[in-house]
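Task 17 of the worksheet. Students: predict the tertiary structure of the chain below and write it out as structure tokens. Keep your answer in the requested format; marks are given for formatting as well as content.
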Amino acid sequence: MTGDKLAELFNRLGRLSAASKEKAGTETAWTYTDPDGQTHRYVVRGVKSHSEMEDDILNVIVWIWNAKDYLRKRAKDTGKNPEMVNEAIKLNPYLSALSDLANGLKHGEFKNHALGKISFTVPGRAVKSITLGAPRQVETDIANPSLVEYRLPISDQTGKQVGDAFEYAERAIAALECIRDTIEEPGSQL
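Model answer:
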């Protein structure tokens, strides 16, 4: 594993992370049936759909997990113990949670962590207009998508929410960068 290949990986992580922070898009829409049985439709224009944002953050999570193999190979190629990468990942709560989630995504079942449903909050200052349309339809146009906050909750095996995937991804990438820097430093050990 060359330093250039490792640099490519971190460039990819940077691009994927940036995509997961880009909120502008066409629109997202959903329906809700209230306890009285009436169905309401909500349309929010100017932001990415829930599924697009979820795809973006899940791609980041999977590539964070893939980084482990790159770092292990690079450690070995620079004369360092690749098991130290595994130990550093286990000790970091963000990396260990995301590695568990990535494995769950790969195998279709989660063991110690699970992902909730993606949601977002739109502050009033982000809204351009709200239109009450056809019966039980609300349309919102977003003027400033950067103010919209998406969340994808992470819970532990008891169901307790422990964090947010977007925040965990950001912190995990920073931890991976520290591992990479240690590997690249002559004479250092993780």
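Marker's comment: The CA atoms of residues 27 and 175 lie 34 Å apart. The radius of gyration is 20 Å.
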